[in-house]
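Now read this:
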Amino acid sequence: MSTTTADDAQRAGGAEAGRYLTFTLNGEAYALDIFHITEIIEYRSLTAVPMAPDFVRGVINLRGRAVPVVDLGIRFGQGATAVARRTSIIIVHSSDAADGQDIGILVDMVNKVVGFGAGDIEPTPSFGTGIQPEFISGMARRENDFLIVLDLDRVLSPDEIAELSRGGRESPDESGTARTP
């Protein structure tokens, strides 16, 4: 008899049973595994960072630390997220960077934490979601529709996290010539 572990599910690229934070972005419902989330804060003004990637809207001061804030709308090619009354920043911790990195994710609105069983999550579709399929770890069933379960490690790749950790400074390319991010 074969059993599937959480590590096996992660290697296969699929979402697994557990608790997820649901949120809305550009009218679509998404979910993130709460394992990565450290806190949720109200939108506050951001400080722009020169030469940062376009999807980095700026940084916030979070208890004395500069935390980059990524606009998922721009990252998904859907345009900038409009700031409104319920706009929130989800603070996630990525351990892919050398010392780990806190990153803010700008969303239209945070909804609630929900639990999904193994049978509630379908494999990633290859079409029709409006975002790159590699950003998705699965589709979670809820009532009459689906939530897109994001793969945070792919939405923010290790290279991009390292770039954010360096603060967007210039770095040499293979030829030794400085390039801008």
The longest strand covers residues 18-25. The chain has one domain: 17-167.
